[in-house]
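Reopening this ticket.

The earlier resolution said the output was attached, but the attachment link was broken on my side. Pasting everything inline this time so it's all in one place.
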Amino acid sequence: MITRIEIDGFKSFENFSIDFSPFSAIVGPNASGKSNLFDAIQLVSQLSKKDIRSALLDLRGEPEELFRKSGSGTREKIKISVELLLPPHGMDPFGTKFQVKAQRLRYEVCLSTRKNSFGDISGMFIDSESCQRIKKSADTSNFVRALGKQISYGGNISDFLTTQSDERGGPTFKIRQDGPNKSGKPRIIPAHEASQSALSTIASAEFPHLYAVKNFLSNISFLEINAHNARRESDRFQTKYMLPDASNLSAVLARIKEDTSTEDKPEGNLADISQGLSRLIPPARRVISVTSIDKREYSFEIEMADNNRFSSRVISDGTLRLLSLITCLYDPVRFGLLCFEEPENGVHEGRIGALVEALREATAEVVEDYVQILINTHSPALMASLEDSEVIAADVVSRVIGGRSEKSTRMRREPSPQGTLLKPEDRLTRFEIERLLRSGSDAA
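Inline output:
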């Protein structure tokens, strides 16, 4: 779980920070930076498992467009920090189980550019990187502090990853040995114009804390459901873990049924998905996974209360979006953080309250995997279904720096009660947030 993120130099962010709870909704008008926040999270996720070039290809926009532009020019560095709450136990790809003694960690990565003689970006590299435990006395997360003794802070464990200088003054990544029975010299990686992060080199529980950080970040899920793609049949070689656009929904449903089916419950978790969909769309009674006779393709149908069945080809866009979401929530292998762009799209306004309740319930039970959901929206109807503690209001603020007016994204948590005399730069009333959504204004 990400409990806090700090961003500087990325797109519309400058010296930005915001705290998250298990279920948080970024609420604001278009062009206020909601999607940019998801892009920053995605950048950290991609850098945890890929080289810089590959990581940037998965983001919206050209690489040079990621660096903040202002009246004083283009920033040369992007710095992103995340504070994490990690599960206490895990297993690496080789079946080795490990324990995370320090569940509260802070990971930072700084990306820098190299420019040619014309001032254009000719290359990018990891400038610095670190991972250190958060001491209990320094933990500012209200959610984590409320968990109390459930959280392990790791005693006097030292930093797991630092950026230092070698004897020649060149940068190096220092990775401390922290696995069971490990007390040898740290791993040193030369970091001069590093083309990938040190974290991306961690492959096993030999470094349990760093592996846990990489495992969490690299498995963050991003949903931007495309109903047209979700209708498609899936071939047998399609990945069976949900893609961002839900284009492999048929394969995911087939995998869930196959993996969870028992003699007493032949539909497995597919029955739970059916029940979840019925809560949002009462006439829907059953989701049916269909495998072709030659077992080369998967598809699905929905059975209604009148026993009529409808194939994915004729199901409405809103129903497909809700089914894709419910499938993610009821997937037994769900893990960590789900970022969901504008969940209200294509959904009848009368069902938005039930949709929000389903998202809230998915994160309500505190278990070891700490399921977390972040959504963004500009819908007043969805805003009306949110509790104050779930709201993060986003807008654009103008500041005068060096005689120039510069705009950047601002986000504020938890609306204050109407009439409370609080500084508007810290919190807004619900009325002000709703007015901001309806007007689409750039400033609060």
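Reporter confirms the inline version is readable. Residues 222-335+337-361 form a domain with the Rossmann fold fold (CATH 3.40.50). The chain has eleven helices and 22 strands.
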